[in-house]
Amino acid sequence: AQSVSQHNHHVILSEAASLELGCNYSYGGTVNLFWYVQYPGQHLQLLLKYFSGDPLVKGIKGFEAEFIKSKFSFNLRKPSVQWSDTAEYFCAVRLNSGNTPLVFGKGTRLSVIA
Amino acid sequence: GAVVSQHPSRVICKSGTSVKIECRSLDFQATTMFWYRQFPKKSLMLMATSNEGSKATYEQGVEKDKFLINHASLTLSTLTVTSAHPEDSSFYICSARDSGPEGKNTEAFFGQGTRLTVV
């Protein structure tokens, strides 16, 4: 079965520090990859997505992610975090066939301190 | 962008009663919607896939008689938690993707979620 692993449960960074959140998935076929963010008390919002093409994907709010097919990874990065980036981040994978659901990782809580 | 509206956002009910949660796609049609449950400090777990005009498909371990799903139109799916118990207290989230040709390479959109508390 498909699974998504997010290695960091809770990450604490100071403002302006660089961020990298790991995401690995287990599926050998063609997949669509997503990163969602959930700010406290709010619903899930899409940060970025990868369907095909350039494996380096730029998203909103300065986030980017790189799809490395050989490593089954889709790590999220941001060069300089802000206090407002404090949130829960979810990596998700969907099989690129039909109307299939997303499979989510367990999430990584990011706390940015001033 | 596409919007999915979920209602209510919060509900408190007594044990033994039933609660209905609605999920609407506001500006697109969705032949399929998904219902997730999010436990505290845990990820979203898929409960079921709601199919317009046919029976929902439930994930292993999800009681279909307890979590009734109805997808009567291309823009509305409902989840009814029947005979609710305190252990059903959770955050329920629906998701939908545009079924039309415009939606082929789009992400899924999520509702705001429903915080259910059973007392």
Provide the fold topology:
The complex is a heterodimer of chains A (114) and B (119).
Chain A: E1 3-5, E2 10-14, E3 19-21, E4 24-26, E5 31-38, E6 45-50, E7 56-58, E8 64-68, E9 73-78, E10 87-95, E11 103-104, E12 108-113
Parallel strand pairs in A: 2-12
Antiparallel strand pairs in A: 1-4, 3-9, 5-6, 5-10, 7-8, 8-9, 10-11, 10-12
Chain B: E1 4-7, E2 10-13, E3 19-25, E4 32-38, E5 44-51, E6 57-58, E7 67-73, E8 76-81, E9 90-96, E10 109-110, E11 114-118
Parallel strand pairs in B: 2-11
Antiparallel strand pairs in B: 1-3, 3-8, 4-5, 4-9, 5-6, 7-8, 9-10, 9-11
Global outline of chain B:
globular
Strand content of chain B: over 45%
The fold-level CATH name of chain A is Immunoglobulin-like
The number of distinct helices of chain A, counting runs of at least 4 residues, comes to 0
Describe the global form of chain A. Answer: globular
CATH architecture of chain A: Sandwich
- How many independent structural domains of chain A? 1
What do you see in this structure?
The complex is a heterodimer of chains A (114) and B (119). Chain A is mainly β and 114 residues long. Chain A has one domain (4-113): Immunoglobulins (Immunoglobulin-like), CATH 2.60.40. Chain A has no helices and twelve strands. Chain A has strands at 3-5, 10-14, 19-21, 24-26, 31-38, 45-50, 56-58, 64-68, 73-78, 87-95, 103-104, 108-113. In chain A, strand 10 (87-95) and strand 11 form a beta hairpin. The radius of gyration of chain A is 14 Å and the shape is globular. The relative contact order of chain A is 0.34. The model of chain A has no long low-confidence stretch (mean pLDDT 92). Chain B has 119 residues and is mostly beta strands. In chain B, 0% of the residues lie in helices and 50% in strands. Chain B is built from no helices and eleven strands. Chain B has strands at 4-7, 10-13, 19-25, 32-38, 44-51, 57-58, 67-73, 76-81, 90-96, 109-110, 114-118. In chain B, strands 2, 4, 5, 6, 9, 10 and 11 form a seven-stranded mixed sheet that branches. In chain B, strands 1-3-8-7 form a four-stranded antiparallel sheet, with no helix packed on it. The relative contact order of chain B is 0.33. Chains A and B meet through strand 5 and strand 11 of A and strand 4 and strand 5 of B.
